[in-house]
Design goal:
membrane, two-stranded antiparallel ribbon, transmembrane, transmembrane helix, mainly alpha, single chain, globular, 153 residues
């Protein structure tokens, strides 16, 4: 019960509290990038769990409930902030990629350290780094396509 509550607060409530700032300045991100980010997170997390690459330790016996707060929380909101800095603030990708990829890898390393997450023998923090890199590259490609379609102002 405590681990589920901790996960809800840290990975869902706190990220969404920060999202209000972005929503006031760039609401289109929530209707364009956020759904893609949530879908990517949901698919990758479920694949990882179902193929026994990692286990998330919560008190829930419902598989989807173990990741839904992560998928719709920190993973989605990190993509929202990534988009905000890349497109709206026009920050250099050479700075944004390391901050977000290493930041999310660091968050996951912390989850490993406090035993909220366990990697199985086929998975490592290096693969996690690559997965976040691939995820943010995918979000960047989506941003570029949305820009070409003139979705963003």
């Amino acid at each position: 019960m405590v681990t589920m509550l901790l996960m809800i607060v840290l990975s869902f409530i706190i990220p969404w509290l920060t999202a209000g700032y972005v929503y006031k300045r760039a609401p289109k991100i929530f209707f364009t990038v956020a759904p893609f980010a949530a879908l990517i997170a949901l698919i990758l997390n479920q694949l990882g769990i179902q193929t026994n690459l990692w286990t998330i330790h919560t008190s829930s016996n419902v598989g989807m409930l173990n990741t839904v707060f992560l998928d719709l929380g920190i993973f989605t909101i990190s993509a929202v902030w990534f988009t905000y800095f890349m497109y709206y603030k026009e920050k250099q990708p050479a700075w944004i990629y390391p901050i977000f990829v290493l930041g999310m890898t660091g968050v996951e390393f912390t989850a490993l350290s406090i035993h909220l997450l366990t990697y199985h023998e086929k998975w490592s923090i290096f693969y996690t780094f690559l997965m976040y890199l691939g995820g943010f590259i995918t979000i960047h490609l989506i941003i570029r396509k949305l820009d070409k379609l003139e979705v963003y102002p």
